[in-house]
Amino acid sequence: RVHLVESGGGSVQAGGSLNLSCTLSGYTTNPYCMGWFRQVPGKEREGVAVFDTDGTTRYAEFVKGRFTISSDNVKNTLYLQMNNLTPEDTAMYYCAADLPDVEWWLSIDDWGYWGQGTQVTVSS
User: Fold this and answer.
1) Residue 6 and residue 80: Cα distance in Å, rounded?
2) Residue 48 and which of 1, 20, 59, 62 are 20 to 30 A apart at CA?
3) 51-106 per-position pLDDT tens digit
4) What is the DSSP letter of 35?
5) Is 89 helix (H, G, I), strand (E, B) or coil?
6) Closest CA to 2 of 71, 99, 119, 105
7) Radius of gyration over every alpha carbon of the chain, rounded to an integer in angstroms
């Protein structure tokens, strides 16, 4: 059974940085497309970035130039380096895996597996 565990969240001041990690276990031999999402109470979960099996990456407009998604296949870990954080980035950040087509990455229902989330809080 596939299991995703996020870590690296915390509290920082505006302008600060955090590096989130998501470790994948229980997977098959096939690599997965993986991504990061975030959600605040009362709002829908939104896509942040995706890392496809061929190394293709895509970002939401609101994080371009500030966040970088990367993957370490040896460690089976997905990362999200977040720089120049703002209070608007405060949210629970979730890792997702197993997407049939990277073109669908913003569609929540098309992802196969989700982690439990890690909280990011940015103060002004």
Assistant:
1) 10
2) 1
3) 999 999 999 999 989 999 999 988 889 999 999 999 999 999 999 999 988 999 99
4) E
5) helix
6) 99
7) 14
